[in-house]
Design brief:
The protein is of the alpha+beta class and about 140 residues long. Helix content is about 25%, strand content about 40%.
Length: about 140
């Protein structure tokens, strides 16, 4: 997969968040897409639903690309996700607080579309920023 095509595909994902335009996912997510969350519907609609949930619960949503690696049909995108929490996010009740966290997505590309991905979000940093009272001061200490 060439870097220009991958950059364009990732650009559509970024635009879905930054422009709050779910139709952009139609240009990069395959109809038979496999979302990593088993609770999500399979196919493009599952990804549309996931992004819609984020947009409903986070104002001033921003997803910025920090680094992009391409290896064959695999794409690693390191990004920064930020906004202001106005609804429940990953089980954290609405706080009205702003946040900025690191995200890593690994996509599989087939026939010019994303067909699957895995993601990692710095949930500790998210919890720390949105609900600091629930986070222990020394999270690295284990008895």
């Amino acid at each position: 997969m060439d870097r220009a095509t991958v950059t364009e595909l990732v650009g559509h994902v970024l635009a879905a968040f930054n422009e709050r335009d779910l139709s952009r996912l139609d240009q990069c997510i395959a109809p038979d897409y496999q979302h990593p969350n088993p609770a999500r519907a399979r196919g493009r609609q599952g990804m549309r639903d996931a992004v819609a949930d984020w947009l409903a619960n986070v104002e001033n949503t921003r997803l910025d690309l920090d680094d992009l690696l391409v290896d064959g049909d695999r794409v690693a995108a390191r990004m920064t996700f930020s906004g202001r929490q106005v609804g429940e996010v990953l089980g954290i009740p609405p706080s009205g607080r702003e946040f900025s966290v690191s995200v890593l997505d690994i996509f599989v590309v087939r026939d010019g579309m994303f067909v699957e991905h895995w993601d990692l979000m710095d949930r500790f940093a998210l919890q720390q920023q949105l609900h600091p009272a629930d986070v222990k001061a020394d999270a690295t200490h284990r008895p």
